[in-house]
Amino acid sequence: MLKRIVAVAALLILFLFLTLPTLYAKDKKYPGEDDFVVAEVPAVMTLSTPPVYPDSARNHKVEGIVWVKALVDDNGAVVEAKIVKCSAKDCGFEEAALEAAKRCQYTPAMQNGKPVAVWVTYKVEFALADGM
User: Is domain 31-126 given the CATH code 1.20.210.10 in the classification?
Assistant: First the structure.
């Protein structure tokens, strides 16, 4: 009798262990920031809006680079954007890069012939034109 109880409990635990991640994944609309998504075709930026150069940076002739990570949904829209590496200049580059990222448009990534949400990471350079 005890062996049966242990066997049933072991099967129940195994069942829960195997099915809970699947049930959780079905409720999740977007991948997590560190989730790996297999896509045969990557998301491609089709509309890029340049960031507004912050006035304080322009006035002080400051240049910099910011790395942005954006969540692109299955329609190609940016749902969320984060800074993954800041410029360390404290002059508004990060805010400008995030605002520009939210206005970008993509062709969605494709997985098994269907569009999927993915995170993309890219560099935003803030450089003054000569003579500025």
Answer: no
* Structure confidence by residue, pLDDT tens digits, 28-68: 789 998 898 989 999 999 999 899 999 999 999 999 999 99
Record the pTM: 0.74
* Domain ranges within the chain, ordered by starting residue: 1-30, 31-126
Amino acid letter for position 77? A
**CA dist., res. 87 & res. 30, Å (int):** 28
Instruction: Return the closest-CA partner of residue 96 out of 51, 49, 59.
Output: 51
Cβ 41 vs Cβ 120: under 8 Å: no
